[in-house]
Every structure is written in structure tokens, then in C-alpha cells.
Amino acid sequence: GSVEGFINMPKILRTVLGLEPALGPGTDLDRVTTFDSLWTALESEMQQVADAVHQISVVRDRQAAGDHSLTNSLVVEDCIEKACGYNQGGARYNHCNWDIVGIANIADSIAAIRKLVFEDQAMQLGEFAAVLRYDWDGRELLRRRIINEFPHFGNDDDGVDRLAARIVERFSDLMKRNRPFRGGEYLLGTLSGIENMYIEFGRVTGATPDGRKAGEPLADSMGAAQGRDKRGITALLNSVAKLPHRLLPTASTLNVRLDPGLIASAEGMAKLAALIRGHFLSGGQHMQINMVSREMLLEAQRNPEQNADLMVRVAGYSAPFVSLWPDLQAEVISRTEHRA
Description:
about 45% helix; mainly alpha; about 10% strand; three-stranded parallel beta sheet
């Protein structure tokens, strides 16, 4: 199966920090005195989420197994030989896919806590959690400092890039401790889908330690959070290549925005081709490019009828820019535009 559900990764960290009382009591932050103890608490919460995801999957798939869809099963390999429907475990491959959303946000957030609380010792973890609880009220300078001075995924910074990879690896391990109803194993992806889950999840997620305010979108794919990749396109691609793509076989989506001027000449086209080739040689699995400038997008907002054919890559799909929700348009505009 592909895209059978979505998981809000930053909300897992917020639960650890006691900021999601409806999801759990959180951790006693007075006992989280080292980065290792924070990671232990995060792993414990990730295990609870993985177990909950498994329970949801089993209930859903058990119900689906009662639907004897003969037409679909006839065209799925091995169902005829096994005399078993595709939704009953008859398929040759029976993996169950869940996509993790907000990888960059949770990695940036953990990196921010590590620096602010454990390295700089500028404040206690409980104090930082209180700042987030009140959505950075009165702490705008701190928020701007985290955004502009702290490390962020997408800048070829090994410290935060390794955190992102570690999160994917550990959560994948925890998911694989359970076995799906149809057999196979649980697989992860990073697709936000036509459901625009990075927008939907952002709307229901409070402030996060990476400087993001309550209600703002999460990172749209496996790339950097909006505007956080500041060291150029090659740095972004290097960060993405460090992720364990072998654990994300269902949907390793990466959306990037490039200056259209890059393809104005044969030389520019050759550089773009080399960029794409280099990304895949270094381990990348996917790259979808928007060749649109900020000015083009703003003009489309002002004059939508004259720009009805302007297509943009959103999450796991492309769509006419003028057809998007206003906050989705704003999110696309906020993405870093990489220039030559």
C-alpha cells in the first residue's frame, strides 16, 4: 500500500515537552538534564506513536479484508495463485506505508534545544517549553535568533543533518517492531500528498522550538523548512542526500524552487543538468523543480486570470498556482528561491 496515513513528527516532540495534554502528560522536564535524556524521552514517545499507528492500521485493514474486491485482486500478482484477495494478504508484496511529515522541523527543533538548553545553557528546558506554550509571546528576539543563527537542516550542516537521519532511522526501527495485518512490514515515506498534510498538520500544531509559530505550515517535503536553507541549492541537496533513503522507499519527495534565469542559456541548462545528475549520484532519490520566481508568483496573485496556466509543485503533486488556497499560495512563495 502507498500513502495509507500521515504522521505529524513535530507533534511527537511537543508531546514530550508537555505541550499536547490531549495526547499525553509529557515528560518530567526537570529530569531531562542532558541531550541523551531528551533523546530517550523522544524515543519513548515515538514508540507510543508507532504502536498507535499499528493499532489504527490493523483495525482499518481488518475491516478492508471483508471487502471481496474481485476486480482488483484479479490484476494483483499472486492473488489468483493464493486464492486470496489483495486486501486479505494475497498480494506478493503486503507492506503498509505511512508518511512522516515535518522531518526538517523536528530535526531543527531538537538542534535548537541542544544548543540553547544543553550547550549554551541559556535557559532551562521547562522555561523553553513555556515560551512555546505561549507561542513566543514577548520572545520575538529569541525566535529570530533561532531562525537566523541556529543550525537548520538544508544547509549541509552535519550536526543537524545527522539528527534528521537519526530520527528517520529510529522511527523506522520502531515501526518495524510491529507486523501489518496483511503481512509485510511498515515502510515510511515523506509525501504530504494531495491532502496537503504539511499545511493541515501545521494548522493544528502549536509553536515548535525551530522558531515556527503556531499554525504555520510544516516543511512541505523531505527538504528544508520554508526559508531555512540559506547556503544555496547544493547545500540543500547535500543535506537531503544524507538521509537514509533506503528507509523511505515509498515516497522520497523533494521540492525545490530555482530562478528561471538559470535556464536562459545553454550554459545554464548544462549546469542544471549537472546539478540533477550530481544529486542522484550522491544518493538522492527525487527532485521536483519549480522554475518560478517570487515576482512571477506575486503577479499571479494580483492577476489570476492572466496566469491561469502557471503550474507549481506543491507537495506530491503539481497544480495551477491560482487554484491553491491562499495560505498554500503563501507557503509556496515563502520557499527559498535558489539563484545561480
